[in-house]
Amino acid sequence: MGVTSVANVNADLGAEEGLDELLALARMIAYARQVAQDVKLQFATNCLDLALEAVKQEVGQGLTRDLAELSSSVPQVSVKRH
User: Fold this and answer.
1) Which superkingdom is the protein from (predicted)?
2) pLDDT above 70: residue 32
């Protein structure tokens, strides 16, 4: 295994760890959103909807299907960095 191969393996592990962290964040936001909705905090629910959509976009379209249970009522919007 050459230096390039080792670097690719380390990059893949880092990317996978980052993805796991984003998925965990999405689940926490979805939980907080549900609690806010249950106690009728509409503004907080809307803010958490936006946060959830931003995380889902960061994760990418390929895994958004895996996050279907975390869906929100907010339409897809662009939150790309400028």
Assistant:
1) Bacteria
2) yes
